[in-house]
Design a protein that fits this description.
membrane, Transglycosylase, transmembrane, mainly alpha
Length: 82
C-alpha cells in the first residue's frame, strides 16, 4: 500500500509543480517521476532546514516544494546550455 500511495503522491506533486512552474503537466509518468524525485529533494531540503513533514498532506507539500525546485534547477541548466 505504501508504494501505491507514494506513486499517487508523486503524480499529484508533479502535476501541481508542473502547473505552478509552466502552466501544464508532464504526462502521467512524467508527473510521477518529477514528483518522486521532488519528494526526495524536498526531504533533503526540509532536513537541512530542520523541518519535518508528517502524514499524507505533509508528504504532498514536501514533494511539491521539491518538484518545484527540481523544475527550476532543470530550467536553469537548460537555459545555460543553449
Amino acid at each position: 500500500m505504501g508504494l501505491i500511495l507514494g506513486l499517487i503522491i508523486g503524480g499529484l506533486a508533479g502535476w501541481i509543480a508542473g502547473n505552478l512552474m509552466k502552466g501544464q503537466g508532464f504526462g502521467l509518468l512524467g508527473n510521477i517521476l518529477v514528483g518522486l524525485v521532488g519528494g526526495f529533494l524536498g526531504g533533503v531540503v526540509f532536513r537541512l532546514l530542520g523541518l519535518a513533514a508528517s502524514g499524507v498532506i505533509g508528504s504532498l507539500i514536501m514533494s511539491v516544494i521539491g518538484a518545484v525546485l527540481l523544475i527550476f534547477i532543470v530550467g536553469k541548466i537548460r537555459r545555460t546550455k543553449l
